[in-house]
Amino acid sequence: MYKLVAMDMDGTLLREDKSISERTKKAIQAARDMGVTVVLATGRPIEGVSRYLEELDMLTEKDYVLSYNGALVQKTKNKEAINKVALNGDDLHYLKNLSDELGVNIHAFWEKKGLITPKSSKYTEVEAQINNIEIH
Questions:
Q1: Exactly one of 8, 10, 57, 91 is catalytic; which is it?
Q2: Chain centre distance of CA 22
Q3: Per DSSP, what are the bridge partners of residue 74?
Q4: Which residues make beta-bridge pairs with 65?
Q5: How does strand 72-75 pair with strand 64-67?
Q6: Distance between CA atoms of 43 and 55, rounded to whole angstroms?
Q7: What DSSP character marks residue 103?
Q8: Averaged pLDDT for residues 15-25
Q9: pLDDT score for 45
Q10: Is position 57 annotated as part of the catalytic site?
Q11: What is the pTM of this model?
Q12: Under 8 Å between Cβ of 37 and 61
């Protein structure tokens, strides 16, 4: 028997219209009823999946979310970090310089300030809207 199932959000759990089918909800609940820990895994911050966590009733002490593409694992009930791997200042400067060299915009999620970017773009605005976070 499986003890844990981690599932991606976009293109896996979510349909094209960003909804979860009733069939999928029932399958998730059946797994949970058998003692399987179900974890949502996403590139989004926890704010970007909170409505799905509520919809799936995954806000207990035993529920977790893997966010920022695996960089942060949190308890869903109180957002306590279980594991965190973050970029440091040198990493950010390197990536910013690389984006300047390539002539592309860059943005990053920051758990304290939302979405950070040197200049806003349509893509950054869409990410902020999808995840219900501010752009700084």
A1: 8
A2: 22
A3: 65, 81
A4: 40, 74
A5: antiparallel
A6: 19
A7: T
A8: 94
A9: 87
A10: no
A11: 0.80
A12: no
